Each structure stands twice: as C-alpha cells, then as structure tokens.
Amino acid sequence: MRLLTIFCLLFSFGLTAKDYKSLQRLNEGDVISAEVFNDMMDRIELTLKNITEKDLMGTWDLVQTVCISGVPGNCSQGSTLTGRLDPIDGLYSQRLDTINFTDDGDGTYSFQQTNYCSLTRGGDVNAPCNKNFAIVDGRIIFPSEGNLSAAYNMKKISNSRILISEYFNGSASFNIIRLDKKNLPPEPPANLSVTNSSGTISLSWDAVDVEETVLVDGTTFVSQSEGAASSYKIQSKDAALGTYTELAAATSNSYTDTIPSGTTRWYRVYAVNEYGTSKGSNVVSISYSE
Fold first, then answer.
1. Average of pLDDT values for 151-176?
2. Helix, strand, or coil here: 272?
3. 231-237 and 284-288 as β-strands: parallel, antiparallel, unpaired?
4. Would you list the domain boundaries of the chain?
5. Distance CA 219, CA 214 (A)
6. Which H or E run includes 136?
7. Which residues, in sequence order, are CB contacts of 203 under 8 Å at separation 6+?
8. What's the CATH code, domain 53-181?
9. What DSSP letter does each residue of 180-247 carry, written as one string?
C-alpha cells in the first residue's frame, strides 16, 4: 500500500442516500488504502461510461412518476394508472413497484415487473409484465404495442441508482422511472481511530446503521431500510508494504488488540451484512515502544 497525502479533495458525489458519494471524507495527511483510492477513481470514471445491460442485473425498487391523470400517452385524456399515491402539489403522481433484470444466458436480457408495467408505450400498464430489452448508446429499448419497440433515455446516478425517462412532446406527457438497487452491502465504517495504553490498542469507529431511503416525496412517504452492519472485520499488518491479514471479527464498533514493544501496526475495518462486505475504512497506524 502506498502512503498518500491528500491535500484537497474537490470531487463531490452527492449527499442523498443512493446518489454518488465518496466512501471516506479525508483530512490533510490521512493515509488511505489503494482500494479506497481506486474506488474514488472508479466513481469518477463511471460518470463517463455508457450504461450496459450488466449494470441492471438484480432486483430494484421502482418509483414511476407521471402526470396527475396520465400515463405514457396523453396527460389530457386522463388515462388511469392504478396504485398511484396522492398527487404531489398538483404537478405529478407516483406509484411504487419492484423490478428484476435478468441475463437470459443466450446474449439477451429481460425484465420482470411485479405489479405493474412501467416500461411501456402502450398496452396494459396495470398488470405485471415480462419483456426483453437491450441497451444501445445510453437508451433502453423494449417492446411496445404490436411489433413496435420503444427507447427511453437512461442515466446512471450511481451503482445503486438509475434514472429512466421519456418525454412525449406531442402530448406533453412524461414517464420518469427511478430505480434503487435492493439488497446492498453496507457502507464502509467511517472515522476509525486508535489509542495506545502500554501496548493495549483500542480501536473505535462509527457504527454503520440502517440507511433510510425516502422513495416518494410529498404527502405520502415510503421508505426502505437497509444497509446496517451485522458485524465488522478487523484487518492488520505490521509493515507499511506488508499484506493485511484478518485479525478478528466484532459485533460492536470497537475492538481491543495487544502489541509488543517495538511494533508499529496498521489497521482497517470492514462492515458486513447478509448481502456482502463493504469497502474498507480509513487506515490508522500506531507505534508502541517502552
């Protein structure tokens, strides 16, 4: 691991739950792992890359936003989407669902929507649907009525949030679909710190708690809760260019280690839940000499 001094970090990845955000906030002189640094670079690069079918694989919470009385078609005709929540400020209405994107194993892909059909230009929008799809140059293409197909714009906000939308100039209607990935591993532990008392090393970090994501704004609020850590993995090494090894597991946000005199030890911590393991925390080191 190289020691990197960060004088100023000018990149902002967003502050809301599923938008881009940096894994660690850094102070001048902080030491970070190559893993965390590379993740920062990956997040910057992702803003420049076209989305692919692989980016959609898995299960997502879906929020569909349409006209007060409309569906993909014509707002003024008062087409009705079932299951809509209360209109918001007289501007739009929304409904919630779940969608799953799968690899069909033969070079094609499909999606299955649980209760409604949000990706459509016609047909039964109030029944579950199962359709094939493809992504070409930032557009998702899927079957429409008859032998036609439709293409919607796509924008990757982060690895766990995607926007799909279409605006229909002829009818002034719109269909905006927000996808939030389900079953995510936790965020990395933050603010790892270390103290020494005669070779007894005390580590502590911020607990990774449940993340509340508000899916709908306005008079009706629906939130999903996920991302809490069920345990933590502590890793350590005794040389700057050494290899980290698993030191211990903890179920709280603290741990006590013992090191002999003349030792310098580096530590980092990972959060774990049923869906996977986070990126690493900041790295701390401490030396002990009698």
1. 86
2. strand
3. unpaired
4. 53-181, 184-288
5. 12
6. strand 129-136
7. 192, 193, 194, 234, 254, 255, 256, 257, 267, 269, 284
8. 2.40.128
9. EE-SPPPPPPEEEEEEEETTEEEEEEE---PEEEE---SS---EEEE---SEEEEEEESSTTS--EEE
For residue 156, which of 280, 9, 276, 14 has the smallest C-alpha distance?
14
For CA atoms 23, 29, 30, 33, the dihedral sign is positive
Number of residues that make up the chain: 290
- Which tokens hold the place of 130? 């199962």
Nearest to 272 by CA among 235, 243, 236: 235
pTM of structure: 0.70
* Confidence band, pLDDT 50/70/90 cuts, at residue 171: confident
Token pair, residue 119, equals 């990706």
Whole-number Å distance between alpha carbons of 127 and 161 = 24
Q: 268 and 279 in contact (C-beta within 8 Å)?
A: no
- Region 42-68: mean pLDDT is 85
Lowest-pLDDT range, 71-80, 158-167, 223-232? 71-80
Amino acid at 179: L
- Would you state the CATH architecture of domain 184-288? Sandwich (2.60)
Q: At 161, which amino acid appears?
A: R
Q: Is 70 exceeded by the pLDDT of residue 269?
A: yes
Distance CA 159, CA 23 (A): 13
Pair 176, 62: CB distance under 8 Å = no
Q: Cβ contacts of residue 121 below 8 Å, gap of 6+?
A: 72, 73, 144, 145, 148, 150
